[in-house]
Design a protein that fits this description.
The chain has helices at about 5-15, 30-50, 60-70, 75-80, 100-105, 150-170, 185-200, 205-215, 225-230, 245-260, 305, 320-330, 350-365, 380-390, 400-405, 425-435, and strands spanning about 50-55, 60, 80-85, 90-95, 115-125, 140-145, 175-180, 265, 280-285, 295-300, 315-320, 345-350, 370-375, 395-400, 405-410, 420. It folds into 2 domains: about 30-185 and about 240-330, 2-Layer Sandwich (BirA Bifunctional Protein, domain 2); about 345-435, Rossmann fold. The longest helix has 20 residues, at about 30-50. The protein is of the alpha+beta class and about 425 residues long. Helices cover about 40% and strands about 20% of the residues. Strands 1-5-6-11-10-9-7-8 form an 8-stranded mixed β-sheet, with helices on both faces. Strands 13-12-14-15-16 form a 5-stranded mixed β-sheet, with helices on both faces. The chain has 16 helices and 16 strands. Bound molecules: histidyl-adenosine monophosphate. Histidyl-adenosine monophosphate (HAM) binds next to strand 6, strand 10, strand 11 and helix 12.
Length: about 425
Amino acid sequence: MNPEKNEEKTNSKKEAVFQSVRGMHDILPKDGAAWMDMWNVGREISELHDFTFMETPILETLGLFEAGVGKMTDIVEKEMFVFKTRGKEDVALRPECTAPIMRSFLQNHLGHFASPLKVFYAGPMFRYERPQAGRYRQFHQWGFEIIGDGDPFYDAEIVLATLHFLSALGLKELRVKINTVGCRVCRPTYQKKLLQHYKANKKELCKDCARRYEENPLRLLDCKAQECRELLSGAPIILDHLCQACNAHLRQVLEFLENNMVLYEPDPHLVRGLDYYSRTVFEVVASDKPETALAGGGRYDYLAEFLGAGRNVPGVGVSIGIERVLEYAASKKLSIGRKDRPSIFFVVVGEEAKKKGLYLIQKLRLARVRTLESVGKKSLENQMRAANKAKAKFVFIFGQRECFEETIIMRNMDSGAQETIPLSRMVEEVKKRLR
Ligand code: HAM
């Protein structure tokens, strides 16, 4: 029996004892390139659109989300990871990042530095939802927020930045579902009309909507329960009840989108599950998978006030669901994260060559030449097989003889041509051939 293999077996048994928490996943090396690609695309798009990076803590006070997202929302009521710290503070793992960004905006007086402030963030969010495909308890969002200007120009810019991000990742045929949820002036009148519509059939609403009827009637519109969907027909739509200012705002947003050839779809039942929205709300979906939102956002002009600012600070933003985007891209076999061919695979044969080899490998890497190796495989044949598998452009072979003669063999993996070059010219010769 091979003792090494035996040890491996015991170890893997041991390793299997602990599992990740339900609904929370590792990002495995096989997906690493796609994630890196996504970060790179995100950084590039953020820079092009002039969004600056900012980060808030993963843990916030519970009250921030109760006040910002809304106590009666599913997110706050049912989905947050909440606990008490040793100092008896009630805290929550952030379920989203817009309220934290606004908290930081107010706390750090960020309005003094730019108007509007345009920021992006990327990182994990936490919601205690029932795990299923595209729905996790820890997931990642890339977000854009523009704070300090209520102009519809910025609502449109948020939509355009989102589409730019997704199309730069190779996603096609995206649709923007868009609606407005009005403002303090027109929303109450609309809510009254909505309640009148549902009043006669109140008893037929699902359990959640029976509660929403009292506390948050707009959410009756996007309930997925069959019984509630049936009651939807004939319900009044907010577009017929908007005040003049909200009407003009919506019209201007749509005009901006039309001028940019954005295919949008008015959806009068889109209300979104967070209470901070006012006026524009939107979601981006793929045409062939319209039931899954890849991104969602909208305007939140009252959020600052909800957080106790004592004044309105207009804001608009979006969050893109990274797992959903990558899963959709994978289902379409899009080439996100397909690696470039490595430049060099460095093969060492013998202990002496290995000792010197690391110095040479580091020299190549310091000269910004991507260099792979698999010295653990020991034999020349096994290392050459690994080089083939990695599809390296060139292989350097460094054995006892080369070590002694201060040379190295360079093999072109496409043509099979092989040459011996002095070590002193190694980097120079590689760079010449890679040009
Ligand atoms: P949200 O619609 O709750 O909005 O989330 C945005 C996106 O995050 C969704 O469209 C989806 O792609 C992804 N997502 C949400 N929940 C999950 C989950 N459990 N598993 C996987 N992906 C998920 C917000 O979070 C707002 N902060 C958006 C915003 C920014 N509004 C204004 N600014």
